Amino acid sequence: MPRLNRTTTASRGRRDQRDWGEVSTPHVPLPEGWREIHDFETAPIALERFLPHPKPSGPCLEGKRVLITQAEDFVGPALMERFRINGAEVCGDAGDLIEPSAAGKLIAAAGHIDVLVVNLVFCNPRIALTATTDRQWAMQFEALVHPLHRLVRAVLPQMIKRRAGKIVVIGSANGLRGSASHCAFAAASGAQLAYVRAAGAEAAPHNVQINAIAQRFVASRMSLPDADLAEPGIAAQVQDIPQGRFAAAWECAALAAFLAGSGSDCFAGQAFPFAGGWTG
């Protein structure tokens, strides 16, 4: 399957940060070892306690055609790697899906799709509820919720016709547990997970499984860019994780691969917490 790379969006989340203003972080001591990291690529090895490294095997996906959206953002690169390792034919699209017709055009261009991995990424800054404007609120739904429905609506008919298909949504645990100063993002995340539950129930009789990963505290170039590794806010986040570490992006990708395989056939409309115990 060819790579559909209409518009590179790797920096879009950071670009949109200007619409939210400055974000402050608390000053707390750093965990031992964080200041020693200078190259993010070495972080999974140098910080084994936080980012364990060995990459496990997963379900065989040979012969499966997989489409991954926003493949250059957040866990997108790890998803691309994991699905290819597991034998799938992978198409990674880096285009912007906010425009109403973009999702339908993408599905049409991709053709046959056995697995759709919906990786929708947008900035998630800390901002007080009373300071959140209507535009900032709407932006979260335009980026995270509306494209999800358009993608599923476009791909589901071919999966129903074949009576086979998997849709895996990379969602957020903010939709499962309240987090102060993230109201707009949490509302959009919650809408994603509610949509997965309803869509999953509707698709299940057709042997199409729709599920979501409700993730948080997953290390990637977007969530832990090089310049932020020594920020006090990182240490504060680690202290908030019961497991005591960030998950590596490959761990999230491994769960996505499982949900795309035959071993997950009895899961439908589920939102799986993936946050190191943070959701309780």
If you had to describe this structure to a student in words, what would you say it looks like?
The chain is an alpha/beta fold and 280 residues long. It has a domain at 12-19 and 57-216 and 248-273: Rossmann fold (3-Layer(aba) Sandwich). It contains 9 helices and 8 strands. It has helices at residues 12-15, 43-46, 76-85, 102-110, 134-144, 146-162, 183-203, 232-239, 249-260; strands at residues 65-68, 89-92, 115-119, 165-172, 208-215, 218-219, 247-248, 271-274. The protein has a 6-stranded parallel sheet with strand order 2-1-3-4-5-8, with helices on both faces. A two-stranded parallel sheet has the order 6-7. α3 (76-85) packs across α9, α4 runs parallel beside α6 (146-162) and α5 (134-144) packs parallel to α7. Mean pLDDT is 82; it is low at 6-51.
Please state the second-level CATH architecture of the domain at 12-19 and 57-216 and 248-273. Answer: 3-Layer(aba) Sandwich
Strand content: 5-15%
What's the helix count?
Answer: 9
Structural class comes to: alpha/beta
Q: How do the helices and strands follow one another from N- to C-terminus? A: HHEHEHEHHEHEEHEHE
- Residue stretches low in confidence (pLDDT < 50, at least 5 long) are 6-51
- Report the C-alpha radius of gyration, rounded: 18 Å
CATH class of the domain at 12-19 and 57-216 and 248-273: Alpha Beta
Largest sheet: 6 strands, parallel
What would CATH call the homologous superfamily of the domain at 12-19 and 57-216 and 248-273? NAD(P)-binding Rossmann-like Domain
> Percent range for helical residues?
25-40%
Broad shape: globular
Beta-strand segment tally: 8
Oligomer: single chain
Mean pLDDT: 82
Give the terminus-to-terminus CA distance.
Answer: 40 Å
CATH topology of the domain at 12-19 and 57-216 and 248-273: Rossmann fold
Q: How would you write the strand order of the largest sheet?
A: 2-1-3-4-5-8
